[in-house]
Design a protein that fits this description.
Blueprint (H helix, E strand, L loop, with lengths): L3 E7 L5 H17 L3 E7 L3 H7 L6 E4 L10 H9 L8 H8 L1 H10 L7 E5 H6 L7 E4 L10 E3 L5 H6 L6 E6 L4 E8 L2 E9 L7 H5 L5 E3 L6 H18 L4 E8 L4 E7 L9 H8 L4 H10 L6
Parallel strand pairs: 1-2, 1-3
Antiparallel strand pairs: 4-7, 5-6, 5-7, 8-9, 8-11, 9-10, 11-12
Helix pairs in contact: 1-11
């Protein structure tokens, strides 16, 4: 009997539009793979979601991005309902989404991260918390939402007064050099992709706008560095307790690899990196999403 798969998409986070595209692509691929798949655009009304999940599907494919769908909140609800779902569970999702906590996990694992602090907007306005250039980013958003590089000449008061993402922010030393990303599928790192962009850094538009970035797969680097990036991604995936598919983002300054973050709900849009890496190693998009469905779990 075909499994009934509810694809959760949309939501109300800052990444709603990306999630709609991811979810539509996933739904179509699941239908191609032979599942009885249907999409649910998630609103902020939990009663409505419960109604739409009744009768229970066999599996939920979580195609939400950003807060509430990616940070453990939805995962907790699905655990209560005892519905298996794709990607990581509650704890791993919450840890990965909260950047300062994730960095503590990485440091405990011996994975190199950039110098960082968590400060308030008032503290930023009062003076540079780190030597310039440095990066300011929300403590718990994805897709580079709100990320800015503070360079010489930047107006700290203006940055602080216009900060859109909560009472606190993470300040992180800017690591110059090259950016790599590695998808992990179960216990298998897939490939290393180098990301380049003409936009200055890999921001939201660079990630999702056509032509916003260029993906070089496989990354043209020394084999030892390639293998190190693959192993770091797997170590980070395991350290956070991730399951299913994740994607690790790294920077290389010419000497050392730094772990930036792990995405537990990586994009599944036409320009997304995980489907691209899967295709590189011979896994079609329908086969990728089918694998994710077949490896769905919950912590009921």
């Amino acid at each position: 009997m075909k499994k009934r798969v509810a694809v959760l998409l949309g939501g109300w986070s800052s990444e709603r539009e990306v999630s709609l595209v991811s979810g539509a692509a996933v739904t179509e691929a699941l239908l191609q793979a032979g599942y009885e798949a249907y999409a649910i655009d998630v609103s902020r009304d939990p009663g409505e979601l419960l109604t739409r999940l009744t009768p229970k599907p066999d599996v939920v494919f979580n195609a939400l991005h950003g807060r509430w769908g990616e940070d453990g909140t939805l995962q907790g609800l699905l655990d209560i309902l005892a519905i298996p779902y794709t990607h990581s569970g509650l704890l791993a999702s919450a840890l990965a989404m909260h950047k300062p906590q994730a960095k503590l996990v990485f440091e405990r694992e011996g994975i190199l991260v950039a110098d960082h602090r968590v400060v308030s907007a008032a503290e930023l306005a009062a003076g540079d918390p780190l030597p310039r250039p440095y990066v300011i980013k929300p403590v718990n958003e994805g897709s580079s939402v709100g990320v800015q590089i503070v360079r010489n000449g930047a107006d700290l008061a203006a940055l602080a007064s216009g900060w859109p993402a909560g009472a606190r922010m993470m300040v992180e030393a800017f690591i110059p050099g090259r950016e790599f990303t590695v998808a992990v599928m179960g216990d298998r790192p897939l490939a290393v992709t180098e990301i380049t962009t003409d936009r200055g850094f890999y921001d939201y538009d660079a990630k999702y706008a056509p032509g916003g970035s260029r993906h070089v797969i496989p990354a043209q680097v020394d084999p030892a560095l390639y293998d190190e990036a693959m192993q770091l991604a797997l170590r980070a995936h395991r350290a956070l307790g991730c399951r299913g598919v994740s994607r690790a983002d790294l920077r290389w300054d010419g000497e050392r690899l730094y772990m930036l973050e792990v995405n537990t709900q990586p994009g599944m849009t036409p320009t997304s990196l995980v489907p691209e890496q899967a295709a590189y190693v011979g896994i079609s998009f329908p086969d990728l999403v089918a694998w994710m469905v077949e490896h769905a779990e919950c912590d009921a």
